[in-house]
Specification:
This protein is mainly alpha-helical. It has two domains: about 90 residues, no CATH class; about 150 residues, no CATH class. Helix content is about 70%, strand content about 0%. The longest helix is centred in the C-terminal third of the chain and has 37 residues. Bound molecules: zinc ion. The site of zinc ion has 8 residues, from loops.
């Protein structure tokens, strides 16, 4: 029963996260502005706004204008629910709370970058800050269990590496391959992983990036920009579980 409750709590939070993902890049009010339909802008009645169930009952079409509701909405609710569910099995107490918060920040980064190719630096900086504090005071609750020294060194190495990559890519191709946001994000993620998992993160996010390219670039456009921040965040969540279980 508790597991079901936590799963649904995750779905409710996922539903709110999707509102943030739509509104943050547009600078809209998160709390006081009522939910509205993405197609016709009409306000959504509360009973059509129940996480997971509404989408299933309405069979993916909005009640107001019968347009298709974005599947991402449902995917994010389900995903957040599942993550919370799995976290409850794997972690407890303060560690559980911390992992849930970190994943909420990551989901925001993953979806906002995927939809808008924007990474809000404030999220990356919070990852650096929380990561350093955790590694300094209680590194055992970080699934990667690294020292604050490892954390600091890897932040410097990973961000310089991405900085150089950005510099040379621009020199050779004359276009920006990496954004400044990607550099701060890699610093934020490696503050948690340390050096050993930084290498795995590089490999896994490259693979995820290629998968993204084939999955989301159906028209095979030459200039399709891979949401690299999104594949980095996604790879990080996978590695978080790898480091916990193995
Ligand atoms: Zn509508």
């Amino acid at each position: 029963m508790l597991y079901l409750f936590i799963f649904y709590l995750g779905a409710i939070i996922g539903s709110f996260l999707y509102v943030c993902i739509l509104r943050l890049p547009k600078n809209e009010d998160l709390v006081f502005k009522k939910s509205y339909c993405e197609s016709c802008k009409k306000e959504i009645e509360w009973f059509y706004n129940v996480p997971l169930f509404s989408y299933l009952i309405l069979r993916g079409s909005s009640s107001c204008c019968n347009k298709k509701i974005n599947t991402e909405y449902f995917i994010l609710e389900l995903l957040t629910g599942l993550l919370f569910f799995v976290n409850l099995i794997l972690f407890e107490d303060f560690q559980l709370l911390m992992i849930n918060i970190i994943q909420i920040i990551l989901l925001l980064i993953i979806f906002i970058d995927y939809k808008n190719r924007i990474i809000f630096d404030i999220f990356s900086y919070s990852l650096i800050l929380i990561g350093l504090v955790v590694n300094y005071f209680f590194s055992y609750i970080n699934p990667f269990n690294i020292s604050v020294l490892d954390s600091l060194i890897t932040i410097v190495i990973s961000s310089s590496f991405f900085g150089l990559l950005k510099f040379f890519y621009k020199k050779i191709k004359k276009v920006d391959g990496l954004g400044a946001g990607d550099i701060i994000l890699i610093a934020g993620l490696t503050a948690w992983t340390g050096f050993r998992f930084f290498l795995y993160l590089l490999i896994l996010s490259s693979v995820t990036g290629i998968v993204y390219y084939y999955l989301f670039n159906k028209k095979r456009k030459e200039n399709f920009e891979i949401p690299f921040g999104s594949s980095l965040g996604f790879s990080f969540i996978i590695l978080l579980y790898v480091a916990t279980i193995f």
